[in-house]
User: What shape does this take?
Amino acid sequence: MDLLNTLVDKGLRRELPTRDEALAVLATSDDDVLDVVAAAGKVRRHWFGRRVKLNYLVNLKSGLCPEDCSYCSQRLGSTAGILKYSWLKPEEASKAAAAGLAGGAKRVCLVASGRGPSDRDVDRVSDTIKAIKDQNENVEVCACLGLLSDGQAERLREAGADAYNHNLNTSEGTYGEITTTHTYADRVDTVQKAHAAGLSACSGLIAGMGESDEDLVDVVFALRELDPDSVPVNFLIPFEGTPLAKEWNLTPQRCLRILAMVRFVCPDVEVRIAGGREVHLRTLQPLALHLANSIFLGDYLTSEGQAGKADLEMIADAGFEVENAGEVTLPEHRAPSDGGCGSHAEAGCDSHAQEGCGSHGAAGCGSHAGSGCGSQEGGGVCGSAPEAPAEAPADARTDLVSVRRRGAGTDLAPNA
Assistant: This one.
């Protein structure tokens, strides 16, 4: 297929595809999906080999959010039966993180619901970062706390944070349909604050909220322009009790096409399969490893994930290997001179002057509105959604949506 050959060539050169080419990937048929995966897999292997980076989420504060992100189980007005608790103590968060690190995770993502942190919250998180790093020398720590005020990113960096996650979630054109409590520009501003402070930017999207192919291409092109080091791709988990509970728009093949499009547009950045992979990719999860070079290990913020042991077996069975703590994730041209976790040092995906495929302007661990660092349950800033259909389609896999009842905020051992 000429389209795929062209996209492979561009990906190996870090050259931006055209919008029409990106749309054509999403429009390919299910009969062609293996060809699409094989082509995007060449780009993934060129920049990242067969390594898979493992990330582990710690939900520092669950529920209790004043924001109304329509996809989020922690939103204001949500009736989803999730765990609700206030801030974990640093020692509690460090203990939770240790389980993921023991399972092979290289990065710990510290997430808290809410619009954004107060200065006191930043102090809390700073103490938690120190507690984790005191016990784990090589761990990367990413914070995902929502919209940042001036000076807060610098304080997190001084405390030892390596990265900040805040997701764009969806296109600027449809953002107001998903979020009403803040703007798309607010999200871009937070990612830019993180980048300016020297933090590695992490920003991604949520697919499956009823968006069009054009919306998906818009948000991924916006991410490329913003140039983050990592791009989490969340697949909507339609929680009962949220406005998007009836949105079941994804098939495993559709998810693979979305991941392939992201890889072609952002060839040399960490593409992470985040929340919803078990629900929507299901038995095709191993194929997605040929497109993304990063996943979350174990559970998400408010939902249960695949067993950590099963994640590790899946990686090995598919012929991939877990990335070690001492390995640099990003290609040399993007990696910082100090060997740290991320960077814009020179650039990336060819677009905009030295920038890479993503950007800091967008978002992080989800910002909570989406999730980011992992799951679209993140917390925070979104808004009301389009009116939901009366009932879910007959093929909706509601049986795969399981609320987290273990790990952080409970007395039960975590899944890692």
